[in-house]
Protein backbone atom coordinates (compact mmCIF):
# COMPACT_ATOMS: atom_id res chain seq x y z
CA UNK A 1 0.00 0.00 0.00
CA UNK A 2 1.33 3.48 -0.92
CA UNK A 3 1.61 5.97 1.93
CA UNK A 4 0.83 9.58 1.07
CA UNK A 5 1.97 12.69 2.94
CA UNK A 6 -0.80 14.89 4.30
CA UNK A 7 -2.45 17.28 1.87
CA UNK A 8 -1.63 20.94 2.52
CA UNK A 9 -3.01 24.18 1.04
CA UNK A 10 0.49 25.65 0.90
CA UNK A 11 1.55 26.19 -2.73
CA UNK A 12 -1.56 24.33 -3.87
CA UNK A 13 -3.24 24.66 -7.25
CA UNK A 14 -6.99 24.96 -6.69
CA UNK A 15 -9.94 24.93 -9.08
CA UNK A 16 -13.14 26.46 -7.65
CA UNK A 17 -16.46 26.29 -9.49
CA UNK A 18 -19.06 28.95 -8.75
CA UNK A 19 -16.31 31.37 -7.73
CA UNK A 20 -18.15 34.55 -8.80
CA UNK A 21 -20.29 34.73 -5.65
CA UNK A 22 -21.11 33.33 -2.22
CA UNK A 23 -19.18 30.34 -0.93
CA UNK A 24 -17.04 29.97 -4.06
CA UNK A 25 -15.69 33.54 -3.80
CA UNK A 26 -15.09 33.01 -0.08
CA UNK A 27 -13.13 29.80 -0.77
CA UNK A 28 -10.93 31.86 -3.12
CA UNK A 29 -10.40 34.60 -0.51
CA UNK A 30 -9.45 32.14 2.26
CA UNK A 31 -7.18 30.01 0.07
CA UNK A 32 -5.40 32.96 -1.58
CA UNK A 33 -2.84 33.51 1.23
CA UNK A 34 -1.72 29.85 0.98
CA UNK A 35 -2.20 28.70 -2.60
CA UNK A 36 0.17 29.17 -5.54
CA UNK A 37 -2.59 29.09 -8.18
CA UNK A 38 -6.33 29.63 -8.18
CA UNK A 39 -8.56 28.77 -11.13
CA UNK A 40 -11.86 30.61 -10.76
CA UNK A 41 -14.79 29.23 -12.76
CA UNK A 42 -18.27 30.74 -13.30
CA UNK A 43 -20.34 32.45 -16.02
CA UNK A 44 -20.08 36.11 -14.89
CA UNK A 45 -16.73 37.39 -16.17
CA UNK A 46 -16.86 40.83 -14.47
CA UNK A 47 -17.38 39.25 -11.05
CA UNK A 48 -14.45 36.90 -11.59
CA UNK A 49 -12.24 39.74 -12.85
CA UNK A 50 -13.02 41.89 -9.82
CA UNK A 51 -12.25 39.03 -7.43
CA UNK A 52 -9.02 38.15 -9.28
CA UNK A 53 -7.87 41.81 -9.22
CA UNK A 54 -8.54 42.12 -5.50
CA UNK A 55 -6.67 38.89 -4.74
CA UNK A 56 -3.70 39.70 -6.95
CA UNK A 57 -3.30 43.15 -5.40
CA UNK A 58 -3.23 41.57 -1.96
CA UNK A 59 -1.10 38.54 -2.91
CA UNK A 60 1.19 39.51 -5.82
CA UNK A 61 2.81 36.05 -5.92
CA UNK A 62 -0.52 34.32 -6.50
CA UNK A 63 -1.44 33.15 -10.02
CA UNK A 64 -5.13 33.61 -10.72
CA UNK A 65 -6.75 32.21 -13.86
CA UNK A 66 -10.32 32.99 -14.89
CA UNK A 67 -12.40 30.50 -16.78
CA UNK A 68 -15.76 31.79 -17.94
CA UNK A 69 -17.78 28.64 -18.35
CA UNK A 70 -21.40 27.56 -18.29
CA UNK A 71 -21.00 24.29 -16.44
CA UNK A 72 -24.37 22.98 -17.61
CA UNK A 73 -22.78 22.57 -21.05
CA UNK A 74 -20.89 19.31 -21.60
CA UNK A 75 -18.74 20.98 -24.30
CA UNK A 76 -17.76 23.84 -22.01
CA UNK A 77 -16.83 21.41 -19.22
CA UNK A 78 -14.65 19.45 -21.62
CA UNK A 79 -12.99 22.65 -22.90
CA UNK A 80 -12.27 23.73 -19.33
CA UNK A 81 -10.52 20.48 -18.50
CA UNK A 82 -8.69 20.41 -21.85
CA UNK A 83 -7.30 23.86 -20.94
CA UNK A 84 -6.16 22.60 -17.49
CA UNK A 85 -4.36 19.71 -19.23
CA UNK A 86 -2.78 21.93 -21.93
CA UNK A 87 -1.47 24.36 -19.31
CA UNK A 88 -0.14 21.36 -17.37
CA UNK A 89 -1.44 22.90 -14.17
CA UNK A 90 -0.54 20.75 -11.14
CA UNK A 91 -4.11 20.71 -9.86
CA UNK A 92 -4.27 19.22 -6.38
CA UNK A 93 -7.49 20.65 -4.95
CA UNK A 94 -10.88 20.80 -6.67
CA UNK A 95 -13.91 22.45 -5.10
CA UNK A 96 -17.13 21.47 -6.87
CA UNK A 97 -19.18 24.30 -5.44
CA UNK A 98 -21.42 25.73 -8.21
CA UNK A 99 -25.03 24.90 -7.46
CA UNK A 100 -28.56 26.02 -8.13
CA UNK A 101 -31.82 25.73 -6.16
CA UNK A 102 -35.51 26.24 -6.79
CA UNK A 103 -37.91 27.22 -4.05
CA UNK A 104 -41.47 26.00 -4.46
CA UNK A 105 -43.47 22.93 -5.34
CA UNK A 106 -42.39 20.62 -8.11
CA UNK A 107 -45.63 20.57 -10.12
CA UNK A 108 -45.46 24.23 -11.17
CA UNK A 109 -41.67 24.61 -11.44
CA UNK A 110 -40.38 25.49 -14.91
CA UNK A 111 -38.76 22.54 -16.66
CA UNK A 112 -35.86 24.79 -17.64
CA UNK A 113 -35.01 25.37 -13.96
CA UNK A 114 -35.38 21.67 -13.08
CA UNK A 115 -33.13 20.76 -15.99
CA UNK A 116 -30.62 23.40 -14.80
CA UNK A 117 -30.49 21.85 -11.31
CA UNK A 118 -29.99 18.35 -12.69
CA UNK A 119 -27.35 19.51 -15.19
CA UNK A 120 -25.39 21.65 -12.71
CA UNK A 121 -25.78 20.00 -9.30
CA UNK A 122 -25.52 16.44 -10.62
CA UNK A 123 -24.26 16.45 -14.23
CA UNK A 124 -21.48 19.04 -13.95
CA UNK A 125 -20.29 17.86 -10.54
CA UNK A 126 -20.09 14.23 -11.68
CA UNK A 127 -18.55 15.00 -15.07
CA UNK A 128 -15.89 17.36 -13.68
CA UNK A 129 -15.06 14.81 -10.99
CA UNK A 130 -14.64 12.14 -13.67
CA UNK A 131 -12.48 14.38 -15.86
CA UNK A 132 -10.31 15.75 -13.05
CA UNK A 133 -9.74 12.67 -10.86
CA UNK A 134 -6.84 11.38 -12.99
CA UNK A 135 -5.04 14.71 -12.43
CA UNK A 136 -5.81 14.66 -8.70
CA UNK A 137 -4.48 11.10 -8.43
CA UNK A 138 -1.32 12.11 -10.27
CA UNK A 139 -0.82 15.08 -7.92
CA UNK A 140 -1.61 13.12 -4.72
CA UNK A 141 -1.78 13.95 -1.87
CA UNK A 142 -4.72 15.96 -3.13
CA UNK A 143 -8.29 16.80 -2.21
CA UNK A 144 -11.75 17.02 -3.74
CA UNK A 145 -14.44 18.95 -1.88
CA UNK A 146 -18.02 18.44 -3.07
CA UNK A 147 -20.55 21.00 -1.89
CA UNK A 148 -23.80 19.31 -0.90
CA UNK A 149 -26.31 20.57 1.65
CA UNK A 150 -27.99 19.36 4.82
CA UNK A 151 -31.13 19.01 2.69
CA UNK A 152 -29.32 16.09 1.03
CA UNK A 153 -29.98 14.08 4.21
CA UNK A 154 -33.78 14.35 3.92
CA UNK A 155 -36.55 14.52 1.31
CA UNK A 156 -37.80 18.11 1.54
CA UNK A 157 -41.27 19.40 0.66
CA UNK A 158 -40.92 22.56 -1.44
CA UNK A 159 -37.30 21.67 -2.38
CA UNK A 160 -37.97 18.30 -4.03
CA UNK A 161 -35.49 18.33 -6.93
CA UNK A 162 -32.82 20.41 -5.18
CA UNK A 163 -32.84 18.17 -2.07
CA UNK A 164 -32.76 15.05 -4.26
CA UNK A 165 -29.82 16.48 -6.23
CA UNK A 166 -27.92 17.05 -2.97
CA UNK A 167 -28.82 13.51 -1.78
CA UNK A 168 -27.07 12.34 -4.96
CA UNK A 169 -24.03 14.51 -4.15
CA UNK A 170 -23.92 13.05 -0.65
CA UNK A 171 -24.15 9.40 -1.71
CA UNK A 172 -21.72 9.84 -4.62
CA UNK A 173 -19.20 11.69 -2.46
CA UNK A 174 -19.27 9.16 0.37
CA UNK A 175 -18.64 6.31 -2.06
CA UNK A 176 -15.80 8.23 -3.73
CA UNK A 177 -14.31 8.98 -0.33
CA UNK A 178 -13.94 5.22 0.17
CA UNK A 179 -12.64 4.59 -3.36
CA UNK A 180 -10.07 7.40 -3.53
CA UNK A 181 -8.44 7.44 -0.08
CA UNK A 182 -6.03 4.65 -1.04
CA UNK A 183 -5.00 6.69 -4.09
CA UNK A 184 -4.14 9.73 -1.97
CA UNK A 185 -7.18 11.80 -3.01
CA UNK A 186 -9.11 12.95 0.03
CA UNK A 187 -12.79 13.34 -0.91
CA UNK A 188 -15.03 15.30 1.45
CA UNK A 189 -18.67 16.38 1.53
CA UNK A 190 -19.51 19.89 2.75
CA UNK A 191 -23.13 19.99 3.89
CA UNK A 192 -24.07 23.52 4.97
CA UNK A 193 -27.41 24.68 6.35
CA UNK A 194 -28.66 28.14 5.43
CA UNK A 195 -25.91 30.59 4.41
CA UNK A 196 -26.50 34.26 3.50
CA UNK A 197 -25.39 34.32 -0.15
CA UNK A 198 -27.21 34.99 -3.43
CA UNK A 199 -28.47 31.40 -3.40
CA UNK A 200 -32.02 32.09 -2.17
CA UNK A 201 -32.45 35.11 -4.45
CA UNK A 202 -31.49 32.99 -7.46
CA UNK A 203 -33.59 30.05 -6.26
CA UNK A 204 -36.71 32.11 -5.61
CA UNK A 205 -39.56 32.39 -8.08
CA UNK A 206 -40.60 35.66 -6.47
CA UNK A 207 -39.48 39.20 -7.27
CA UNK A 208 -39.23 40.45 -3.68
CA UNK A 209 -36.09 39.74 -1.62
CA UNK A 210 -36.11 36.61 0.54
CA UNK A 211 -35.29 36.88 4.22
CA UNK A 212 -33.16 33.97 5.35
CA UNK A 213 -34.71 33.97 8.83
CA UNK A 214 -38.07 33.32 7.20
CA UNK A 215 -36.60 30.09 5.80
CA UNK A 216 -34.46 28.80 8.65
CA UNK A 217 -34.16 29.20 12.44
CA UNK A 218 -31.55 31.92 13.08
CA UNK A 219 -29.31 29.55 15.11
CA UNK A 220 -28.83 27.36 12.02
CA UNK A 221 -27.75 30.23 9.76
CA UNK A 222 -23.96 30.30 9.28
CA UNK A 223 -21.88 33.02 7.62
CA UNK A 224 -19.99 32.14 4.40
CA UNK A 225 -16.71 32.99 6.21
CA UNK A 226 -17.43 30.42 8.94
CA UNK A 227 -18.67 27.76 6.49
CA UNK A 228 -15.49 28.01 4.43
CA UNK A 229 -13.13 28.18 7.44
CA UNK A 230 -14.69 25.07 9.01
CA UNK A 231 -14.73 23.24 5.66
CA UNK A 232 -11.04 23.93 4.99
CA UNK A 233 -10.10 22.78 8.48
CA UNK A 234 -12.07 19.56 7.87
CA UNK A 235 -10.14 18.97 4.62
CA UNK A 236 -6.84 19.15 6.51
CA UNK A 237 -8.21 16.88 9.25
CA UNK A 238 -9.33 14.41 6.55
CA UNK A 239 -12.97 14.32 7.61
CA UNK A 240 -15.43 12.57 5.29
CA UNK A 241 -18.36 14.94 5.95
CA UNK A 242 -18.50 18.42 7.42
CA UNK A 243 -21.62 20.24 8.63
CA UNK A 244 -20.23 23.69 9.47
CA UNK A 245 -22.54 24.55 12.38
CA UNK A 246 -22.19 22.51 15.60
CA UNK A 247 -25.82 22.76 16.70
CA UNK A 248 -27.08 21.94 13.22
CA UNK A 249 -24.76 18.97 13.04
CA UNK A 250 -26.20 17.52 16.27
CA UNK A 251 -29.78 18.17 15.14
CA UNK A 252 -29.14 16.53 11.75
CA UNK A 253 -27.67 13.41 13.38
CA UNK A 254 -30.76 13.16 15.58
CA UNK A 255 -33.30 13.87 12.83
CA UNK A 256 -31.78 11.28 10.50
CA UNK A 257 -33.43 8.67 12.72
CA UNK A 258 -36.64 10.62 13.37
CA UNK A 259 -39.84 10.67 11.28
CA UNK A 260 -39.57 13.07 8.33
CA UNK A 261 -42.44 15.32 9.49
CA UNK A 262 -40.32 16.31 12.50
CA UNK A 263 -37.57 17.61 10.21
CA UNK A 264 -40.12 19.60 8.22
CA UNK A 265 -41.38 21.14 11.46
CA UNK A 266 -37.93 22.09 12.74
CA UNK A 267 -36.50 23.52 9.53
CA UNK A 268 -39.15 24.70 7.16
CA UNK A 269 -41.28 27.72 7.77
CA UNK A 270 -42.41 28.97 4.34
CA UNK A 271 -41.84 25.73 2.53
CA UNK A 272 -44.21 26.47 -0.37
CA UNK A 273 -42.05 29.16 -2.01
N1 LIG B 1 -26.52 29.42 0.49
C1 LIG B 1 -27.04 28.38 1.12
O1 LIG B 1 -27.91 28.53 2.01
C2 LIG B 1 -26.57 26.99 0.81
C3 LIG B 1 -26.90 25.95 1.71
C4 LIG B 1 -26.47 24.67 1.44
C5 LIG B 1 -25.73 24.41 0.32
N2 LIG B 1 -25.43 25.42 -0.55
C6 LIG B 1 -24.65 25.07 -1.74
O2 LIG B 1 -23.47 25.87 -1.77
C7 LIG B 1 -23.02 26.02 -3.11
C8 LIG B 1 -22.72 27.49 -3.37
O3 LIG B 1 -23.91 28.22 -3.25
P1 LIG B 1 -23.93 29.75 -2.79
O4 LIG B 1 -24.75 29.79 -1.56
O5 LIG B 1 -22.57 30.31 -2.78
O6 LIG B 1 -24.82 30.35 -3.98
P2 LIG B 1 -24.63 31.62 -4.93
O7 LIG B 1 -24.19 32.79 -4.13
O8 LIG B 1 -25.90 31.70 -5.71
O9 LIG B 1 -23.43 31.19 -5.89
C9 LIG B 1 -23.61 30.18 -6.87
C10 LIG B 1 -22.40 30.13 -7.77
O10 LIG B 1 -22.63 29.12 -8.77
C11 LIG B 1 -22.33 29.68 -10.05
N3 LIG B 1 -23.13 29.08 -11.10
C12 LIG B 1 -24.48 29.00 -11.18
N4 LIG B 1 -24.85 28.43 -12.34
C13 LIG B 1 -23.70 28.15 -13.02
C14 LIG B 1 -23.41 27.58 -14.28
N5 LIG B 1 -24.40 27.16 -15.11
N6 LIG B 1 -22.13 27.45 -14.67
C15 LIG B 1 -21.12 27.89 -13.85
N7 LIG B 1 -21.33 28.41 -12.64
C16 LIG B 1 -22.60 28.56 -12.23
C17 LIG B 1 -22.66 31.17 -9.90
O11 LIG B 1 -21.91 31.93 -10.84
P3 LIG B 1 -22.46 32.58 -12.21
O12 LIG B 1 -23.88 32.95 -11.98
O13 LIG B 1 -21.54 33.74 -12.42
O14 LIG B 1 -22.27 31.49 -13.22
C18 LIG B 1 -22.16 31.45 -8.50
O15 LIG B 1 -20.78 31.72 -8.52
C19 LIG B 1 -24.14 25.46 -3.99
O16 LIG B 1 -23.78 24.15 -4.42
C20 LIG B 1 -25.34 25.39 -3.06
O17 LIG B 1 -26.25 24.37 -3.43
C21 LIG B 1 -25.82 26.71 -0.32
Question: Characteristics of this structure?
Answer:
single chain; 273 residues; alpha/beta; Rossmann fold; seven-stranded parallel sheet; globular; binds NADP nicotinamide-adenine-dinucleotide phosphate
What are the SSEs and their pairings?
Blueprint lengths: L12 E5 L4 H10 L5 E6 L2 H14 L4 E6 L5 H13 L6 E4 L14 H28 L3 E6 L12 H21 L4 E6 L8 H5 L20 H13 L4 E2 L3 H10 L4 H8 L6
Parallel strand pairs: 1-2, 1-4, 2-3, 4-5, 5-6, 6-7
Helix pairs in contact: 1-7, 3-4, 4-5
Bound molecules: NADP nicotinamide-adenine-dinucleotide phosphate.
NADP nicotinamide-adenine-dinucleotide phosphate (NAP) binds next to helix 1 and helix 6.
Protein architecture, described:
The protein is an alpha/beta fold. The protein has one domain: NAD(P)-binding Rossmann-like Domain (Rossmann fold, 3-Layer(aba) Sandwich), CATH 3.40.50.720. Helix content is 45%, strand content 13%. The chain is built from nine helices and seven strands. It has a seven-stranded parallel beta sheet with strand order 3-2-1-4-5-6-7, sandwiched between helices. The longest helix has 28 residues, at 111-138. The radius of gyration is 18 Å and the shape is globular. The mean pLDDT is 93.
